Amino acid sequence: MSSKRSLKGISRTDAFLFDPEELILVTDEAHVLFAPEVNLPFDEDLVRNIMVNGVIEPVIVSMNNEVIDGRQRVKAAREANRRLAKEGKQLVRTPAMRRRSASDADMFGVLVSSNEHRRKDSAIEQAAKALKMLNMGAKEEEICIAFGWKPSSLKAMLKLLDCDPKVKSAVSSGQVSATAAARLAGLGREEQRAALEKLLKESNGKRATVRQAQRAVSGKDEVKPPKKKEIEALMAKQYENDSARAFVAGAGWARGHLSDSQCQALLNLVRSDES
User: What is the pTM of this model?
Assistant: First the structure.
């Protein structure tokens, strides 16, 4: 059973370390501790994090080891252990705190409140923490695992810290997405504020997108070069001869729509057709 000890007048509740397979995930919809998220697939980012750092936040269980809060952590810990076992590495154990409840209503109340009162860090707070980790010597891969980001997301998040306070405020309030705000980071402070004003006006009360941010910065939409398969399909359908295809390839490159490698790929495609 869980015990409490006093340390200089401070109470402490111990957490037990369980094999995650020993913790019970309730799947019976009639059970008081059933929650629909138990049927969700495990979170890949959380699995990778647990493989590196273990389960950081204890789960809450009943006296019968039924999970009240922390279903996704338990599922991710189980998957992490399956992978760690294949690699011959030490398995993780899940810290769990037992909750003695007087009634089903009390138990369900814990289930509800444990989810409803959680507050996730804002994008600006996450960016500040990522920078702190970077300054402490953490590798980019370690930071991405900690936050569940892709490398490109880390770069965009760090750019937020160079944004004007008004831009940061727009991100925190949900008016502008973090990736959209990152497009403004390269501008001067006054230019950022002007672009933000234009961006908020164009988004018309909705969350501003990356495309809208790009238009606010440059005055035109960002042109994304077509992928090789798209180019090949386009060339095959719309142009009758190799000369026309070669001309389109060159024109696309000259206008900046195609990279050097994409233009060369088209020319190689023309040569292969000729042979």
Answer: 0.54
